[in-house]
Amino acid sequence: MAQIDESKVSRWDRHGREHVVRVRRAGVRRTIECDTCGWRKGARFLPRLTRALKAADHLAEAHQATVDPARGRSGEERR
Fold it and tell me: Is residue 61 helix, strand or coil?
């Protein structure tokens, strides 16, 4: 089974701009990094869900990006 080396959390702000935070893995080290502003945080021992929540929190607080692209703007699931 192949290992995943990178995942991402993306959100849109109210102006329709996409902001992305990537979680990169190199061995046991994990880094959460924002593509928009360059913010970085080490995440060595955090579970996957906690890392995703930290990424989403950064997007909401720093960029007011809260709309999940996997859902419609009204909050309904895309089909």
Answer: helix
pLDDT tens-digit series, residues 44-70: 777 778 888 999 999 999 999 999 877
pTM of the full structure? 0.75
Task: Report residue 45 as tokens.
Answer: 């021992």
Residue of 59, 54, 56 whose CA lies nearest to 41: 54
Tens of pLDDT, residue by residue over 29-42, are: 889 999 999 999 98
Joined together, the tokens standing for residue 44 give 């060595």
Looking at residue 28, its pLDDT comes to 78
Torsion-angle region of residue 17: left (phi > 0), alpha (psi -120 to 50) or beta? beta
The values of phi and psi at residue 30, to 5°, are: -130, 140
